[in-house]
Amino acid sequence: MDVQQLIHEQVTTHPVVLYMKGSPQMPQCGFSATAVQILKLSGVKEIFAVNVLADDEIRQGIKQYANWPTIPQLYIKGEFVGGADIMREMFESGELKQALLDAGVA
Fold it and tell me: How many domains does the chain have?
């Protein structure tokens, strides 16, 4: 399976997927830590997190998959949501909570 197929499988078989630096328990950058905190504050109990620092193919591949240059990247029910800044804006407006509720994960 090539890296694009692997990423597609990950984002379509898990309700909430976060490509991040580190893990939810130990984020390796401030943006990843912010993303995890926002998801927790939004009521997400289970995050399928992918540590891009552990696999350079995924680290590069995820940028191509969404045509988005930065990490973290959030996917809900297979849909690309955005990075930490977009997550923050959506959290503050209530859009993120609604998207998570609509997906049945918050």
Answer: 1
Residues for the chain: how many in total? 106
Mention every residue, 6+ apart, whose C-beta is less than 8 A from residue 73: 18, 19, 62, 66, 80, 81, 82, 83
- Per-residue pLDDT tens digits for 5-21: 999 999 999 999 999 99
Q: Which amino acid appears at position 34 of this protein?
A: T
90: Cα separation from own chain's centroid: 14
Instruction: Give the DSSP letter string of 31-45.
Output: HHHHHHHHHHHTT--
**CATH number, domain with residue 43:** 3.40.30.10
Angle, alpha carbons 61-79-60 (nearest 5°): 10
